Amino acid sequence: MESVHFIEWCLENLNYWTVTLLMAIESSFIPFPSEVVIPPAAYKAAAGELNVFLVVFFGTVGALIGAYFNYILAYYLGRPIIYKFVNTRFGHMCLLDENKVHKAEDYFLKNGAISTFVGRMIPAIRQLISIPAGLAKMNFKQFTFYTVLGALLWNTILAVVGYSLHSVVPKDQLMQKVQEYSKEISNGMIILGILLVLYFIYKGFAKPKNGVKAE
Question: What domain count does the chain have?
Fold first, then answer.
């Protein structure tokens, strides 16, 4: 209960540090939607209380910190311990279960490194995609690059939504509108992710073999 009050306090007192902290929580295995952090912070930026570019920057830094947490745990603890953890009472309190982690791992194995980028924008996968990356011992620099890229794009989109709503939506209706738009954005990101995966598959098949140029 105290953790709930803490998060409520952070949301009521949004600044660059609370944005970083909440986005780090959101990006770890603890369930907490980024949609209730970045859009309200961008909304405040439109009112002149914050800088929208710094909101995106610190939101991305927080997302990277949370992703590192999952990655390092999975990298060093290994698959058996991770799966054992998600089946504990605490794991269930964090809304984790074996099926969700398996789904994220399967997604990662099917799509490779690009899934770390695309997965950052897909609901139910976004918070967990760092775990299979750690289990697969993905290159750290590559993991960082794709995580920052995906988080930056997602946070930018959410910031644009929050910033643009300032002039047309009263503050008490903000979260309702954000939830409506976030569903549409998430669906759009899923489509974009599928297109990107198909593109990389196409590039893989189209790549000339043995240094012979395609006619």
Answer: 1
Question: Phi-psi category of 137—alpha, beta or left, where left has phi over 0 and alpha has psi -120 to 50?
Answer: left
**Inside any domain, residue 115:** yes
Q: Is residue 195 part of a domain?
A: yes
The tens digit of pLDDT for each residue in 163-173 reads 888 877 777 76
CA distance to 140, 159, 171, 183, 205, per residue, from 35 (Å)? 27, 9, 15, 10, 37
Reported confidence tier of residue 1, pLDDT bands at 50, 70, 90: very low
The parent domain of residue 141 ranges over 2-205
- Whether residue 183 is contained in a domain is answered as yes
Q: What is the pLDDT of residues 177-209, one digit of tens each?
A: 666 666 666 666 666 666 665 665 566 555 555
Round to whole Å and give the CA distance between 68 and 64.
6
Confidence (pTM): 0.73
At position 120, the amino acid (one-letter code) is: R
Torsion of CA 111, 70, 151, 178, to 10 degrees: 110
> At which residue do the structure tokens 């939607």 appear?
33
Determine the pLDDT at residue 61. Answer: 96
Joined together, the tokens standing for residue 49 give: 């209380």
**Residue linked to tokens 């893989």:** 204
Report if residue 39 sits inside a domain: yes
207: left (phi over 0), alpha (psi -120 to 50) or beta: beta
User: 3-class SS at 28?
Assistant: coil
pLDDT in tens, 146-169: 899 888 988 998 898 888 888 777
